[in-house]
Specification:
The protein has about 450 residues and is of the alpha/beta class. Helices cover about 25% and strands about 20% of the residues.
């Protein structure tokens, strides 16, 4: 689906990187690494990326001084925040890239590309009318798993547009335990709050209930009010997770990234290495596969990374058909590949990214979005692999609440081995543009994943 982009601020404005407030003490008494305070560098990063003069420079040990001297001589600017092994810079001209790459202390120079939230609005929702079990949560059988665990003791980093800090249907950690590249951790868009509700909305008397209602979502705000961010903002957010995951309570064991951009696994080594470092620290990363039906996950970042769990979208329930006309008698069943989903070899598992697809007059498909939380309270619907990803992130949280020693590899194995309808789902979309990717990886199944005694399963 197409998404509009908007420019935000000047490419040259100085900034400080952030976390949402002062230090906060973790469960073991250690201080959460948030002492740099609030910042709004994300707007500058997005603006520079769109202008084509933003880059991420991978440094060899000791390369900082060399980079600073070169930038001063060539009218470039480095951002105030320093990544663990890289710097974000703005160059006066794209022609300067070759000279920068030639420096001995520079390992790589990569364009700082724009990243987008991967969802679209859907109709429906509203104010409090009692709690609803959303169709996607029901389809993965989450409610059947809560007798074993609700995800208590597990933190889920929502790497997104922020989270509504006052929503009554979400658990809220210490306000300082968050990250933002855009001045505040609060959600100015709605995407991050909706994603949070799918993964971890509370089991109470209002709104919806999430896949892991006992888990705690942490806001890692890397996208602005239009749903845009950059490789730079994502790297910064992931480095915050890496530094703070074990210091917050409950600890962060899962990170959900319902975002992406066109690209391939090797197009930014700094971003890929940061993802690898987070996974190596024992944090399971779940990402949206993408909403471009004409591409595969190898064409989407971060879905192309083999270390993450890329999730494609299916329908949760059967949609409505027509009783007359040229499309009479045709309907879209549950577990059908969503008409918009990116797929391809390497998808970890599919999950509902929409409630249903209805056939309308003119033989068009209409997506009914997943019901989840809205900024300011109440509920709303959205569709996309952005919604499929937190569904699986919630199942991952259940697995880690059941056994906190499980590695990201073990979580991935259990999710894949326990999926329902392997070899028969996702079902083919009836759209003329659909092409089967050769994989029917099945749909996530929470109770089966928890019941799996070993992974890979022991043959009987």
């Amino acid at each position: 689906m197409k998404r509009s982009l908007s420019l935000l601020g000047s490419a040259w404005t100085a900034f400080l990187v952030l976390a949402c407030g002062g230090d906060v003490t973790g469960a073991d008494g250690a201080s959460v690494q948030s002492s740099l305070g609030r910042g709004s560098f994300g707007s500058d990063s997005v603006s520079a990326a769109r202008a084509g003069n933003g880059y991420i420079v991978e440094l060899a040990p000791g390369g900082d001084a060399e980079l600073d001297a070169w930038l001063a001589a060539h009218h470039g600017r480095a951002r105030a925040f320093r990544f663990s092994h890289a710097r974000a810079v703005d160059l006066a001209s794209p022609g300067d890239v070759a000279g920068l790459r030639a420096l001995p202390g520079i390992l790589g120079v990569y364009p700082n590309r724009v990243v987008q939230a991967i969802a679209k609005p859907g109709g429906g929702g509203g104010g409090p009318v009692g709690e609803v079990l959303p169709a996607g949560v029901a389809r993965v059988g989450a409610d059947q798993a809560w007798s074993v665990t609700t995800g208590a003791g597990v933190g889920i980093a929502i790497v997104d547009t922020g989270i509504d800090a006052d929503h009554a249907d979400l658990a809220h950690p210490d306000p300082a335990a968050c990250f933002t590249a855009f001045g505040t951790c609060d959600d100015g868009h709605g995407h991050g709050t909706h994603v949070s509700g799918i993964a971890a909305a509370l089991d109470n008397t209002t709104g919806v209930v999430g896949v892991a209602p006992g888990a705690v979502p942490y806001a890692v705000r890397v996208l602005d009010n239009s749903g845009s961010g950059t490789d730079e903002t994502i790297i910064a957010g992931l480095e915050w997770i890496l530094a703070n995951a074990a210091l917050v309570a409950p600890p962060i064991k899962v990170a959900n990234l319902s975002l992406g951009r066109p690209g391939f696994a090797e197009d930014n080594n700094v971003l890929h290495t940061t993802v690898q470092n987070v996974v190596a620290a024992g944090i399971t990363i779940v990402v949206a596969a993408g909403n471009d039906k004409l591409t595969e996950i190898t064409d989407q970042v971060p879905a192309a990374y083999p270390e993450v769990l890329a999730i494609a979208s299916t329908t949760a329930v059967a949609g409505k058909g027509l009783t007359r006309g040229s499309c009479a008698g045709i309907s879209v069943p549950a577990d059908t590949a969503s008409y918009f989903t990116t797929d391809g070899a390497g998808v970890a598992v599919s999950a509902p990214g929409e409630e249903a697809e209805n056939i309308t007059n003119g033989c068009m498909l209409q997506s009914v979005g997943i019901l989840s939380l809205a900024v300011g309270g109440g509920t709303t619907r959205m569709s996309g692999t952005s919604m499929a990803s937190p569904t699986v992130a919630g199942v991952a949280a259940l697995l880690l609440a059941q056994d906190s020693t499980r590695t990201p590899g073990d979580v991935a194995c259990r999710l894949a081995a326990s999926a329902s309808s392997i070899d028969s789902a996702p079902k083919d979309s009836p759209t003329s543009s659909y092409t089967f990717d050769g994989e029917r990886e099945g749909v996530a199944n929470a109770p089966a994943a928890l019941a799996l005694s070993a992974c890979p399963p022991i043959a009987e």
